[in-house]
C-alpha cells in the first residue's frame, strides 16, 4: 500500500482518532491536510508531522459551514494540484435526555457529524474526478449506529446516517472511480490508556480496548488503490465488542 505523495485530507485531525489517522498517513509518505476547528491543536499536529519528517498543512475549518469546506478543498487543490483521499472524521457527541435536547443542539450534532460528510465528499469529489485514478473517501461512523445507550439520539441518528450516505455516495461516484466506504469504530481510547481496567478490556474478543492506530490502519486499507474492489461498505472495527454476549454478574 503506497501513499507516497498522495494528498490526504483529514477533518477533525487536531485530536483523538483524527490525529492518529493524520500521523499514520504522514508516516506512509502522504501529504496531509489537517482540517479542524481547533486552531491551536491543529497547528501543533501539523508541526509535529513536519518535525517527524512528513509534509503537512493546516487549514482552519468549521465543517458545519459550507463555505469552510469549499475553502478547504480549494486550498488543498490549489496548493498541491490534486486531492486523492478524504477522511471525514470530524464529529461531536451529545448525551442528553431527548426531553431536554433543544433543536439547536440537535442541528449542531447533525450538521457537524452528518451534513459535513455530504458536503465534504461532494466538494472533494469535484477534484478527485480529475485524477486518472479517481480517489477514495472514508467516513467515520460508529458502532452507535447499530446499538445505543439512553440519551444518545442525535449522535446515533447522525452516525446511522453516515452508514447510509456512504453506500449512496459509492453508487453516485462510481462512474468517477471514487470509492466510498465507512468505518464504525467501537471503544477507541484517546485518553489515558493505562488507566483502563481489566474488565474494560475483557468486553472485547480481542481482549483489549482499541487505540486510534487501529482506525488509522483500517483507513489505509480502505484507501489503498489496490483495494478499490472494497466499495460501499461499513467496516466495524470494535475488537468484536458488538458480537460479544455480555450478561450482568
From TrEMBL:
<keyword id="KW-0560">Oxidoreductase</keyword>
<dbReference type="InterPro" id="IPR020904">
    <property type="entry name" value="Sc_DH/Rdtase_CS"/>
</dbReference>
<dbReference type="InterPro" id="IPR002347">
    <property type="entry name" value="SDR_fam"/>
</dbReference>
<dbReference type="Pfam" id="PF13561">
    <property type="entry name" value="adh_short_C2"/>
</dbReference>
<dbReference type="GO" id="GO:0016616">
    <property type="term" value="F:oxidoreductase activity, acting on the CH-OH group of donors, NAD or NADP as acceptor"/>
</dbReference>
<dbReference type="InterPro" id="IPR036291">
    <property type="entry name" value="NAD(P)-bd_dom_sf"/>
</dbReference>
<protein>
    <submittedName>
        <fullName>3-ketoacyl-ACP reductase</fullName>
    </submittedName>
</protein>
<dbReference type="GO" id="GO:0008206">
    <property type="term" value="P:bile acid metabolic process"/>
</dbReference>
<comment type="similarity">
    <text>Belongs to the short-chain dehydrogenases/reductases (SDR) family.</text>
</comment>
Amino acid at each position: 500500500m503506497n501513499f507516497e505523495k498522495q494528498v490526504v485530507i483529514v477533518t477533525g485531525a487536531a485530536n483523538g482518532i483524527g490525529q492518529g489517522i493524520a500521523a499514520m498517513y504522514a508516516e506512509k509518505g502522504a501529504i496531509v491536510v489537517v482540517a479542524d476547528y481547533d486552531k491551536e491543536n491543529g497547528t501543533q499536529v501539523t508541526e509535529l508531522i513536519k518535525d517527524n519528517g512528513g509534509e503537512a498543512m493546516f487549514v482552519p475549518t468549521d465543517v458545519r459551514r459550507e463555505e469552510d469546506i469549499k475553502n478547504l478543498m480549494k486550498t488543498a487543490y490549489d496548493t498541491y494540484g490534486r486531492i486523492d483521499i478524504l477522511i471525514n472524521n470530524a464529529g461531536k457527541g451529545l448525551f442528553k435526555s431527548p426531553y431536554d435536547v433543544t433543536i439547536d443542539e440537535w442541528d449542531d450534532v447533525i450538521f457537524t457529524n452528518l451534513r459535513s460528510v455530504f458536503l465534504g465528499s461532494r466538494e472533494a469529489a469535484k477534484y478527485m474526478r480529475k485524477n486518472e485514478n479517481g480517489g477514495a473517501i472514508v467516513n467515520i461512523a460508529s458502532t452507535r449506529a447499530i446499538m445505543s445507550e439512553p440519551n444518545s439520539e442525535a449522535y446515533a441518528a447522525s452516525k446511522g446516517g453516515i452508514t447510509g450516505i456512504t453506500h449512496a455516495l459509492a453508487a453516485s461516484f462510481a462512474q468517477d472511480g471514487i470509492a466510498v466506504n465507512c468505518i464504525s469504530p467501537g471503544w477507541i481510547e484517546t485518553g489515558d490508556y493505562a488507566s483502563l481496567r481489566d474488565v474494560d478490556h475483557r468486553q472485547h474478543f480481542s481482549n483489549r480496548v482499541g487505540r486510534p492506530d487501529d482506525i488509522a490502519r483500517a483507513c489505509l486499507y480502505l484507501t489503498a488503490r489496490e483495494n478499490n474492489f472494497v466499495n460501499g461498505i461499513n467496516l466495524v472495527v470494535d475488537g468484536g465488542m458488538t458480537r460479544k454476549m455480555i450478561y450482568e454478574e
